[in-house]
Each structure stands twice: as C-alpha cells, then as structure tokens.
C-alpha cells in the first residue's frame, strides 16, 4: 500500500465516495487507482463493512479497474519479455474473469495431466504412435472433449475452466495439448489456421498436423492445403508453420471478444479489445 496514505486516510477517502458531487467522487476514484493494486484487500474489507449499495458498487468498479490495469501490465510484460511461457500467457488471460487464480495451481494441474500421459509414453515410439498414446490419455482416459454445446462460452477461453470441465474450443484444447507435449519434449507447436486452430508435429524428418478439437485426429499437409482451398483462400505460410505463444494468446483474446459480443456484454468485449490493442502496440525485445 502507498506509504503516503495510512488506513485512516484511505478510510476517509472511501467515505467520500458517498459525496453527491461527481467531481469529488472522480477525484477520489483517481486517487485510489493511483495507489495501485495493493489497495484491493483494503477496498474489499470496506465493501464488506459498507451498508450503502451505491458505495459498494463504486468499490466494485474500483477493484475491477485496478485488477484490469494490473492484468494489462502483466500481459504487456509477458509479451515484452518474449512470451516464453504459454501457460503463463493463458493464466494472465484467465485472471480477467478469475483474478484470484494462481499460476502455481495451473502448473500443478498440467503436471498431473503430464504424469497421466507419461505413464504410457515411450520416447522411442514412432511419432504417429506417440500421438496415438497422447490422444488415448487425453481424450479417453482424461476425458477432454470439444465443447460443441456451448462453443462460444467465455469459459472455453479460460484455461482453468477447461482444466476443470474437460471441455474446450480448438485453441484451448490445443494449448493443453501443446503444454503436455512440451513436457514430453516433443516438437509440437500451434498453427494459426483460419477458423480452426491446430497443432503441428514438426522435425526435419516428420511433419503432420493434429486436431485437438477432434480427439487428436492427424492430418497431412495436403489435407491442410485442401482445407484452405475449400475456404477459397490463398495459401499462406502462417497456415502451415508454427506460430508463436504471443500469436496463440492473441487468438484466445479474439475468441473472447466474440464470446462476449454474442452475450451482448459489450463492456467486457471492449475491455478485451483493449488488452489486444495494448500488446499489438507493445515494444518487443
């Protein structure tokens, strides 16, 4: 908490949220937000002790504004530092809806999934057999599935929700697939196909594609070429080559924008657009 304001002064500030002068309220809100994220626990206690619904609502809005600013900062730092950890990027996005979600919790969840796959996995298998083993573990033993029933649900873009429900969209299921594959030290990456996110297994000797949304079904390059042709699009390298972690998280955010728009939640769709714009314009190292 800002050293220039003690609890008594903060309490006095919060009490001014009841003021009828909008200018005073704006000044108070700006001052509280300038203190930063560390003031949130204090605001939560003030919310609990308040009996004024109007003040409670203003406190809720302040907490959300502080959390959103912090999320935007974290996302920007993740991109600026090279977007090296895909799980961290997915976690940052999930904190938009679940601000108390811990990265350590997600790491444990992925570790457990990896262990379940590793039990049947052998490094000397042919790549197709490796994928068959992973598919059996993820889609039969662990019961991950495509969420066709609620395809546009925002939860499909939240890695914690997908881990809990075992349901997801093409990109969220691909993220989990990639994270497990990385721990198995396999050359599996994301591919930014139009309308469908997929994975690719890519080495000098082997190259094929994996559809995590369809239980890990394997496709050849010619299958992907036919898919692109059916969409009446000109073939582009990005339809066939591995994309970056940053590309993956940007696509997750675009999916979220669509999800919130379909729910007519324009405030949230606008905020997610802000997140997208902030990393589109952020400097890279």
Beta-strand residue percentage: 5-15%
How many helix segments?
12
Percent helix among the residues? 55-70%
Q: Structural class, from helix and strand content? A: alpha+beta
| Side-by-side strand order of the widest sheet | 3-4-5-6
How many domains? The number is 2
Bulk shape:
elongated
Oligomer: single chain
Biggest sheet character: 4 strands, antiparallel
Give a count of the beta strands, DSSP E runs of length 2 or more. Answer: 6
Textual characterization of the structure:
The protein is of the alpha+beta class and 285 residues long. The chain folds into 2 domains: 7-80, no CATH class; 86-280, no CATH class. The protein has helices spanning 7-15, 22-35, 40-49, 53-80, 86-94, 103-118, 127-141, 159-165, 170-183, 221-230, 245-262, 266-280; strands at 145-146, 167-168, 188-193, 196-202, 207-211, 217-219. The protein is elongated, with a radius of gyration of 22 Å. The two termini are 31 Å apart.
Give descriptors for this structure.
two-stranded parallel sheet, 6 strands, 285 residues, alpha+beta, 2 domains, 12 helices, 58% helix, four-stranded antiparallel sheet
């Amino acid at each position: 908490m800002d050293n220039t304001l003690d609890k008594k002064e903060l309490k006095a500030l919060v009490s001014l949220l009841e003021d009828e002068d909008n200018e005073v309220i704006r000044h108070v809100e700006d001052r509280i937000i300038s203190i930063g994220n560390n003031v949130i626990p204090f605001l939560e206690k003030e919310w609990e002790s308040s009996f004024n619904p109007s003040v409670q609502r203003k406190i809720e809005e302040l907490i959300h504004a502080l959390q959103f600013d912090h999320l935007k900062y974290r996302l920007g730092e993740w991109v600026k530092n090279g977007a090296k950890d895909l799980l961290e990027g997915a976690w940052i996005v999930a904190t938009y809806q679940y601000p108390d979600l811990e990265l350590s919790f997600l790491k444990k969840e992925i570790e457990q999934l990896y262990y379940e796959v590793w039990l049947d996995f052998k490094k000397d298998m042919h790549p197709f057999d490796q994928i068959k083993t992973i598919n059996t573990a993820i889609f039969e033993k662990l019961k991950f599935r495509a969420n066709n029933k609620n395809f546009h649900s925002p939860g499909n873009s939240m890695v914690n929700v997908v881990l809990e429900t075992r349901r997801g969209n093409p990109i969220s299921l691909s993220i989990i697939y990639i994270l497990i594959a990385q721990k198995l030290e396999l050359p599996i990456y994301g591919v930014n196909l139009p309308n469908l996110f997929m994975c690719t297994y890519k080495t000098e000797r082997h190259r094929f594609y994996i559809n995590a949304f369809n239980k890990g079904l394997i496709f050849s390059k010619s299958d992907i070429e036919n898919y692109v042709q059916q969409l009446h699009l000109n073939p582009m390298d990005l339809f066939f080559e591995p994309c970056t972690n940053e590309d993956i998280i940007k696509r997750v955010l675009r999916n979220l924008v669509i999800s919130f728009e379909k729910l007519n939640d324009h405030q949230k769709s606008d905020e997610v657009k802000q997140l997208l714009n902030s990393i589109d314009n952020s400097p890279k190292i």
